């Protein structure tokens, strides 16, 4: 029985010793002192010394010291506050009138050069070089932003609550100040010219 008590005493002392070393890194001095006290009362040499001095009911003293230690650790630790909910700020987006794509301009491709094959006899007459074809003139397409826009709506809305030609767009979204038709801020709806 004595060997079992000694084994359990050293096991608990080792456990509390490791916890004590870990608590040295924390910022809780009360918890560190309580763990040191628990380590000391579990060590078998200290238990033998106390029993040799004739202290009666040593086991109840140990239970009381453990209970007081639990109370001290529990009263000095602060409860963790729940994490604060991070609320993102509301995103206010204003639709931007889309720009028309730049007009297609044909790229100037170099004309292929004729393949010269080596001939055994030199020719006195030079070969005619190909004449490059003139490049077609670029087609200029007027953009809607460059044409004048009348002050009134281009076409009357179906329900009268929207300056755009239709109450909804192709995707079914509302027309008006919050639609893709409107300029930033929801003022002056922009209607497409093909809807006239």
From TrEMBL:
Composition bias (Low complexity) maps to: 142-154
What keywords are assigned to this protein? Membrane, Transmembrane, Transmembrane helix
Entry annotated with the keyword Membrane: yes
Region listing for Disordered, in residue ranges: 95-196
Compositional bias (Pro residues) spans?
Answer: 100-141
- Presence of keyword Membrane: yes
Q: Which residues cross the membrane?
A: 7-24, 30-46, 58-76
Per its record, how is this protein called by name?
Uncharacterized protein
- Recite the lineage of the species: Bacteria, Bacillati, Cyanobacteriota, Cyanophyceae, Oculatellales
């Amino acid at each position: 029985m004595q060997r079992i008590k000694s084994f359990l005493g050293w096991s608990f002392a080792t456990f509390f010793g490791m916890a004590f070393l870990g608590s040295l890194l924390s910022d809780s001095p009360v918890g560190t002192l309580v763990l040191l006290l628990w380590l000391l009362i579990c060590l078998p040499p200290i238990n033998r010394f106390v029993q040799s001095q004739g202290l009666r009911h040593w086991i109840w003293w140990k239970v009381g010291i453990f209970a007081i230690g639990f109370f001290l650790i529990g009263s000095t630790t602060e409860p963790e506050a729940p994490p604060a909910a991070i609320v993102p700020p509301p995103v206010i987006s204003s639709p931007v009138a889309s720009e028309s794509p730049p007009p297609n301009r044909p790229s100037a491709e170099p004309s292929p050069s004729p393949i010269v094959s080596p001939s055994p006899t030199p020719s006195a007459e030079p070969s005619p070089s190909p004449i490059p074809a003139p490049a077609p003139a670029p087609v200029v397409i007027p953009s809607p932003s460059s044409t004048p826009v009348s002050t009134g709506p281009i076409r009357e809305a179906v329900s009268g609550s929207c300056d755009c030609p239709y109450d909804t767009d192709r995707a079914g979204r509302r027309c008006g100040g919050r639609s893709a038709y409107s300029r930033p801020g929801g003022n002056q709806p922009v209607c497409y010219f093909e809807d006239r």
